[in-house]
């Protein structure tokens, strides 16, 4: 009873109170550790995904480098092909004195074209096709009643692509409707 009357004397904690307090501390620690574990797992997943993305981008870069490594070199060779084609156009096919030279130029041109084709360099020769601004460069427009407006009439210079990517656009003349067929200002109104 003396304990009840003296407020300065503290009651010793009971075993149950100590266990409850210790259980609360453990539960808080477990919750904290679970949060840290979840954060670490999330970070690990993010790092793995980032590593996979880096690896995929590197593989794509290597693939593109292999695919388009010859782009500049092939572009430089196009001038040689153009010169051979012009030489053949300008020389007289009926002149017997020029026949051996023409045959040599034709053979050289064929070897060049076959070599470029082997490396996926394709010719864009749009004569008669509709004008496509992604593959053709219009140098002039010319009236024509024989073909649809917007068609390629002449090809000044063939275009080329490498592995589906435009290397050089074809330089072309595009048709337009004859002025007699084009509506005048009075006809529009």
Short description:
The strands form two sheets. The protein has a three-stranded antiparallel sheet with strand order 1-4-5. It has five helices and six strands.
Q: The biggest beta sheet, please? A: 3 strands, antiparallel
Query: What's the arrangement of strands in the largest beta sheet?
Result: 1-4-5
The termini sit apart by 117 Å
Shape: elongated
User: Beta fraction of the residues?
Assistant: 15-25%
Parts with pLDDT < 50 across at least 5 consecutive residues: none
**Overall mean pLDDT score?**
85
How many H/I helices? 5
Number of domains: 2
CATH homologous group name of the largest domain = Head domain of nucleotide exchange factor GrpE
What's the architecture of the largest domain in CATH terms?
Roll
Which percent bin holds the helix content? 40-55%
Query: Which structural category do the helix and sheet elements fall into?
Result: alpha+beta
Q: Calculate Rg over CA atoms.
A: 40 Å
| Number of E-type strands | 6
CATH topology-level fold name of the largest domain: Nucleotide Exchange Factor Grpe, Chain A, domain 2
Order of helices and strands: HHHHEEEEEEH
Text of the CATH class of the largest domain: Mainly Beta
């Amino acid at each position: 009873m003396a304990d009840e009357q003296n407020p300065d004397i503290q009651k010793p904690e009971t075993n149950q109170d100590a266990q409850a307090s210790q259980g609360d501390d453990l539960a808080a620690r477990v919750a904290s550790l679970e949060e840290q574990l979840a954060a670490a797992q999330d970070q690990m997943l993010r790092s793995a995904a980032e590593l996979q993305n880096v690896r995929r981008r590197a593989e794509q870069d290597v693939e593109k480098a292999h695919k388009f490594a010859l782009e500049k070199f092939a572009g430089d060779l196009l001038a040689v092909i153009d010169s051979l084609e012009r030489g053949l156009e300008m020389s007289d096919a009926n002149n017997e004195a020029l026949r051996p030279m023409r045959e040599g130029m034709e053979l050289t041109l064929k070897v060049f074209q076959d070599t470029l084709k082997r490396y996926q360099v394709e010719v864009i020769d749009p004569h008669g096709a509709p004008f496509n601004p992604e593959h053709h460069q219009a140098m002039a427009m010319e009236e024509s009643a024989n073909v649809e407006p917007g068609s390629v009439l002449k090809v000044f210079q063939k275009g080329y692509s490498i592995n589906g990517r435009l290397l050089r656009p074809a330089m072309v003349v595009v048709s337009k409707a004859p002025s007699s067929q084009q509506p005048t200002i009075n006809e529009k109104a």
